[in-house]
Write a structure and sequence with these properties.
- This protein has about 350 residues and is α/β, with parallel strands linked by helices.
- The chain is built from nine helices and twelve strands.
- The strands form three sheets. It has an eight-stranded parallel β-barrel. Strands 1-2 form a two-stranded antiparallel sheet. Strands 5-7 form a two-stranded parallel ribbon.
């Protein structure tokens, strides 16, 4: 490992913070560590035509999240992965090559196996048949443990054990506890789970993990181009709740995903905007402002470990401004400079 185990913070009980009806929560002095300055790396369909890491380093990123997607096909419940029909970068050979190039460039890596489900969001996935649950568990465990072994072999710096299993996490928590034990037997680095922004309080397994992970698409405002003051105001109650939660569990919070489309209203309901992006005007300034206010809100919070913005295309270059004009990627947009400035901070 690259010494990232030290990121599992030590905590010192120092006082009590009076909160709402849930009662007082002990404040903790979270050990100061460098922020995780990360991005989510989009797996390429073919082997790299050139090394993509220098461009990543140009925005001062220090971590990448590598996503070897698995799939639940239509009318099925079992996890499929590794088919030759999948993109090269999502298969084991592409994942290993990506990790190798990242480490050779001095970048740290989180492997984040993630499930795509045909026609639906994985957060809605659940089963009411014990046999089907058993089959799903067997296929998901095989998928995750494959990448736990790769993480150990390749000296990967962190592993995310799942992403946004809102119903499946709550309906089948015993499975997740057992899975974590299996992963710990294979991989000795830090573990997290990527909960959706509206489910993190209901996840039962934080005590077994090193970090609280959140897909941080908190809806702040539907204004087309809100001011910095408006964005900061809307973040305040979110910060209060996140700080309380971190103190309660004595663990730092990582934004395992965060990001904004480059469209009007991008700080609002991202999941709706994503489906309707063609109806909205491109707005690079709104995207850049949203990034800036997120960083300015959380950067100095010791309980916030940093995170991985969504997302980064390895074959994309800044001069291709026609490429995904309204997409999450900040590449070639105003937000790229904003990210570079914040990630350049020490």
């Amino acid at each position: 490992m690259l010494g990232i185990g030290i990121l599992a913070a030590s905590f010192i009980n120092i006082d009590l913070e009076e909160k709402d009806v849930e009662g007082p929560v002990a404040k903790y002095d979270f050990k100061k560590e460098p922020k995780i300055k990360g991005l989510t790396f989009v797996a390429p369909p073919r082997p790299f035509s050139e090394n993509p890491m220098p461009y990543i380093q140009s925005v001062n990123a220090e971590w990448i999240a590598v996503i070897p997607y698995g799939f639940i096909p239509k009318d099925d419940h079992k996890v499929a992965h590794g088919s030759e029909r999948q993109w090269w970068g999502e298969r084991e050979e592409g994942v290993v090559e990506t990790i190798t190039k990242a480490h050779e460039s001095g970048l740290r890596v989180m492997i984040k196996p993630q499930i795509w489900m045909h026609g639906s969001w994985i957060g809605d996935f659940t089963l009411d048949n014990d046999k089907h649950w058993q089959e799903w568990e067997e296929t998901y465990s095989k998928y995750i443990l494959q990448y736990a072994r790769i993480a150990q072999e390749q000296g990967v710096d962190m592993l995310c054990i799942g992403t946004e299993f809102k119903k499946a996490m709550q309906d089948n928590s015993d499975y997740w506890y057992h899975l974590i034990d299996q992963i710990r037997a294979v991989y000795d680095g830090p573990l997290t789970y990527s909960s959706n922004w509206d489910e993190y309080k209901d996840v039962p397994i934080w005590d077994k993990l090193d970090y609280i992970g959140i897909s941080a698409y908190f809806p702040l405002t539907d204004e087309k181009e809100p001011s910095h003051a408006t964005l900061k105001k809307e973040w305040k109650p979110v910060v209060k709740e996140l700080e309380r939660f971190a103190n309660k569990h004595k663990k730092k919070i990582i934004f395992t995903e965060f990001g904004y489309l480059s469209v009007d209203g991008c700080a609002g309901k991202t999941w709706i905007l994503e489906k309707e992006r063609d109806k909205h005007n491109q707005n690079q300034k709104a995207q850049a402002d949203a990034f800036h206010c997120l960083f300015s809100t959380f950067w100095d919070e010791d309980w916030w470990a940093g995170g991985f913005f969504w997302k980064w295309y390895p074959e994309m270059r800044p001069n291709r401004k026609d490429f995904y004009n309204k997409d999450y990627s900040p590449q070639g947009k105003l937000a790229e400079k904003t990210i570079a400035e914040w990630y350049g901070k020490r």
